[in-house]
Amino acid sequence: MELRHLRYFVVVAEELNFTRAAERLHIAQPPLSQQIRALEEQLGVALFERSKRRVALTDAGERYLQHARRILAEVEQAADDARRAARGEVGELRVGFTSSLPFTSLLPGLISDYRRHYPQVQLTLREMFTALQFEALRAERLDIGFVRFHGKENPPDLQLREIHRDPLRLVINASHPLAAQAHASLEQLRDESFIIYPAGAGTGLNVQVRQLCLAAGFEPRIVQEAREATTQIGLVAAGLGVALLPSPLECVKMPGVRYLPLSDEGAYLSLGLATRPGPVPPLLAGFLDCLQNRKEMAPIKHRP
């Protein structure tokens, strides 16, 4: 049995006239009658009552018509779903991001644009430190990650592309003498106590802070660790020390805290896209198109 047999049967059942059914199907009447006969023989039941005056469905034909219509509809739906999947219009897209990204206009605007253009795609967002995103990409638990790095971390088994640089800000208590300055330098923080992320958190910022301090001639004195940037800001407000965080976080307004630009070269943290190497799947290509339309960047090449 082939799908065309079902289509032939449905048209004959709707017309109850072999001549009109043949015209709808753009075939001759004798081959159509032969196909219906062959279908009945295969099923072992009569689907139509035939006479010189009329054609009518049998009880078996009435039941078979319901199933045939449902099967044909499901086949068409499956074909349409496959075509939409090939265009990246259905499925699940898993996106990782670091905690500072929601404080920018990029992620909220991008998600809004993508959901408007691809409403049938299930978008799964996961906040993760950069190192954990790398692991999730390797294990195929993520499709793309927005990661933080300083240009030195370049996993050989992943594709990493810089799309933006955010300056680092010195987060300092408002009562500190440096807080009155318009900007600060790392060498002025030689005697300060630093608040950073835990060593195993999976962020590259700790390495960047240490390298900047070493370049300024001292080893940073770590007095407190906190996994959340907002917690670090709160600890600065409490007078426990200073912190270095990406500039988008300066929108966190907290009494007793100031954010100062740093004059040191290299005092920035890059925002990058991390993906697996190889051809870009349709779902991801649509997401990258939306990103491209939101930011002025070098064109993102979609490899077929």
From TrEMBL:
Q: Which domain of life is it from?
A: Bacteria
- Quote the InterPro entries the UniProt record gives: LysR_HTH_N, LysR_subst-bd, WH-like_DNA-bd_sf, WH_DNA-bd_sf
Q: Does the keyword Transcription apply?
A: yes
List the keywords (alphabetical): DNA-binding, Transcription, Transcription regulation
Domain HTH lysR-type, residue spans: 1-58
User: GO molecular function, one example?
Assistant: DNA binding
Please report a single Pfam family linked to this protein: LysR_substrate
Task: Spell out the SUPFAM superfamilies in the cross-references.
Answer: Periplasmic binding protein-like II, Winged helix' DNA-binding domain
This protein's GO cellular component annotations are: protein-DNA complex
Q: Per its UniProt record, what CDD domains does this chain match?
A: PBP2_LTTR_aromatics_like
The record's family statement is: Belongs to the LysR transcriptional regulatory family.
- What protein does this entry describe? DNA-binding transcriptional regulator, LysR family
Q: Which organism is it from?
A: Pseudogulbenkiania subflava DSM 22618
Q: What is the lineage of its organism?
A: Bacteria, Pseudomonadati, Pseudomonadota, Betaproteobacteria, Neisseriales
